[in-house]
Design brief:
The complex is a heterodimer of chains A (268) and B (353).
Chain A lengths: L2 H17 L1 H29 L10 H32 L1 H6 L5 H29 L9 H29 L5 H12 L14 H5 L3 H12 L9 H32 L6
Helix pairs in contact in A: 1-5, 2-3, 2-5, 3-5, 3-6, 3-7, 3-9, 6-9, 6-10, 9-10
Chain B lengths: L21 E10 L5 H6 L7 E11 L4 E5 L6 H8 L7 E6 L2 E2 L4 H7 E4 L12 H11 L4 H14 L15 H13 L5 E5 L7 H18 L3 E5 L3 H7 L2 E6 L2 E6 L1 H9 L2 E6 L5 H8 L3 E9 L4 E8 L6 H10 L4 E6 L4 H14 L1
Parallel strand pairs in B: 3-8, 3-9, 6-7, 7-8
Antiparallel strand pairs in B: 1-2, 1-4, 4-5, 9-10, 11-13, 11-14, 12-13
Classes of the chains: A mainly alpha (268), B alpha/beta (353).
């Protein structure tokens, strides 16, 4: 993959985004406004939630903060590839990129680079705001947290690539990113632990990469566990990441070959 | 396929010993037809593909301009997209600078520069210079050369003074020039142009054609394949034209020669008396055929288009006889046949064959 090409495409998207100055500033401001009500609601619910979340953290605010932060990255992983391909195909920009010697992998990484960078910036802001509001976290466990995040992002990015493949082949993502995001939000333990789910839903929740990822992430950051203590969950996420990402990349490659045969690669 | 009375060698520049930069051999491409939901349910596995390119063969050499003509849906854009590696052919082969468009697509992309996309394929919120800098990286130009290559490309298309202006503030013509500048960045050997002057006013289109001819074909020795609907492009710019109809090559040759062979030798006579007996007489004698008569200028003058048998050899004698008979003639000149008519005749002839 050409790092120069990825950087150049990401920079172009960044320059475009910051040229809309009001929208750019407001998007940061809205993030700060969102976190404050969450803090007060979480503090109010603390007495009721403390025992329920005990396995993953002591404070409900920290629990929700980690869930929201990871969901931000998961949402980007699921939707950004399909959005980039869809926008690029409808404008003709993708066609202009595909006839350059830059490989497809670098084009896709560059086209989504800004979305991921922006998601990471939001996560950093969220965690910074959480720290400022006094969240009780073990920040020394950040390296372990980064590994877990990286693996779960890779897993969902693989599913995002499948959604992009659907756009390339059929001009629709068939609601895959939205559907997976809703299911992951409800069953993955973003706002409440999966222990409170009805028994028939619990096995389903465990199949989602987000569930073990959130559990491991919270145990590292909120309870200070080392990576070895969450090895079982981490291993599951790494396997899911490998399978989903390689599978997604293969499906996407096949979809481009199909679109070249069907002549639909450059139809707007 | 040659035009009648013309050999293949006459109809193209064929540098001795140099292989063509573009070689298309018996190329076929068919597309599935979009079917209604009802049809899919009734016959889920019955697919009737529609041919877009049928058994097309052509070659384009360095420094040569070849025009692709034909009505909408003739297969021009499909052919260009096959060469741009965006569409995979069903049968036959296409090579660019010796690289196969299917098996060696990455190498093809290093030597081609398609101008197929529209203005929306630019970053409108970035400057022209920033747009080109981005593509310079994507085209893998050395970092040290990017600044000078971008400046050169902008200068070449006449946008040197507006490089820092946001593309969204450009006119359609300027955007079209920027697309060409983008294509020229990588010093391509083959250019694929799909109606490059469609957004330009007549003056801009004329200077753009001059630029294409001088810069691309003469100076850079690019092979250029251009799909066009414009008469001027076919006749002034192209060394050769290929008329496509329903995906097949209906005719091929120099546009002017094709025009002569398909439409006859056509001359315009500017006169005050379109119905002068002397004019009627030459037509009655079969020395010329009246093709069209239309009012010109202030309404007093008329242009009578004649097809004269024998062409330039017979025209002086016919003119002399008209003047001698007292027909007042202000102008008498060879006229270019309308492109639409040329295409129609070429298609008609190929269908009859």
């Amino acid at each position: 993959m050409s790092a120069r090409a990825v950087g150049a495409l990401t920079r172009a998207a960044w320059r475009t985004a910051k040229s809309y100055r009001v929208s750019f500033v407001l998007s940061f401001a809205s993030l700060a406004v969102t976190i404050i009500p969450v803090y007060f609601v979480a503090t109010a619910l603390q007495p009721f939630m403390a025992s329920v979340i005990a396995e993953e953290g002591r404070e409900y605010f920290g629990f929700v903060l980690i869930g929201t932060a990871l969901l931000t990255l998961v949402a980007t992983s699921l939707s950004s590839f399909a959005a980039a391909v869809s926008g690029g195909l409808s404008s003709g920009f993708f066609e202009a990129l595909l006839v350059t010697p830059t490989p497809l992998s670098a084009i896709l990484a560059g086209q989504t680079g800004y979305a991921f960078a922006w998601a990471v910036a939001r996560v950093v802001l969220l965690l910074g705001a959480g720290a400022a509001l006094g969240v009780d976290a073990h920040w020394l466990r950040l390296p372990e947290a980064v590994l877990i995040v990286f693996a779960v992002v890779a897993a969902y990015a693989g599913l995002g690539l499948v959604a992009a493949a659907l756009v390339v082949s059929f001009r629709t993502n068939a609601g895959v990113p939205q559907g997976l995001l809703i299911i992951s939000t409800i069953l993955g333990g973003v706002y409440f632990p999966t222990a409170v789910l009805p028994p028939f839903l619990s096995p389903l929740a465990e199949w989602l990469p987000l569930t073990p990822a959130l559990r491991a992430l919270r145990q590292c950051l909120l309870l200070g566990y080392p990576l070895s203590a969450v090895a079982a969950d981490f291993g599951r996420i790494v396997i899911a990441a490998g399978l989903c990402f390689l599978g997604g990349a293969a499906v996407l490659r096949w979809s481009f070959a199909y679109a070249r045969r069907a002549g639909s690669l450059s139809q707007y | 396929m040659e035009a009648p009375g013309q050999t293949r060698a006459e109809s193209r520049r064929e540098p001795a010993g140099e292989p063509p930069l573009v070689r298309v051999v018996e190329l076929w491409k068919a597309f599935p037809v979009a079917r209604s939901f009802h049809d899919v349910l009734r016959q889920p596995f019955h697919s009737q593909p529609v041919p877009a390119v049928v058994d097309v063969s052509l070659e384009v050499y360095a420094g040569e301009f070849v025009g692709l003509l034909g009505p909408n849906g003739a297969g021009k854009t499909t052919l260009l997209k096959v060469l741009a590696t965006l569409i995979a052919p069903d049968r036959g082969s296409a090579t660019v600078a010796g690289h196969d468009v299917v098996r060696d697509a990455a190498s093809v992309r290093r030597v081609i520069a398609p101008v197929l996309a529209n203005e929306r394929s630019l970053y409108w919120r970035l400057s022209a210079q920033e747009n080109l800098e981005l593509f310079a990286v994507l085209l893998r130009l050395p970092k040290a050369e990017i600044e000078s290559r971008v400046a050169d490309a902008l200068d070449v298309v006449g946008l040197g003074d507006t490089g820092r202006k946001m593309v969204g503030q450009f006119s359609a013509g300027m955007m079209q020039r920027l697309l060409v500048a983008r294509a020229l960045l990588g010093h391509p050997r083959v250019l694929l142009l799909d109606e490059p002057t469609r957004s330009l006013d007549p003056t801009a289109a004329h200077s753009f054609r001059t630029f294409l001819r001088e810069e691309l074909a003469t100076r850079r020795q690019c092979a250029v394949l251009i799909a066009t609907h414009r008469t001027e492009e076919a006749f002034e710019l192209c060394d050769r034209v290929v008329v496509l109809h329903r995906g097949r090559v209906a005719a091929e040759g120099r546009a002017a020669t094709l025009g002569d062979s398909l439409l006859g030798f056509r001359y315009g006579v500017w006169t005050l008396e379109p119905n002068h007996p002397a004019l009627s007489e030459v037509i009655a004698e079969g020395r010329a055929r009246r093709v069209a008569v239309r009012s010109e200028g202030d309404g007093r003058w008329w242009r009578v288009d004649l097809e004269i048998d024998g062409g330039d050899d017979a025209a002086p004698e016919l003119l002399r006889s008209l003047v001698a008979a007292g027909v007042s003639i202000a102008r008498f000149e060879r006229v270019v046949a309308p492109l639409g008519e040329l295409i129609e005749r070429a298609i008609g002839r190929s269908v009859r064959r």
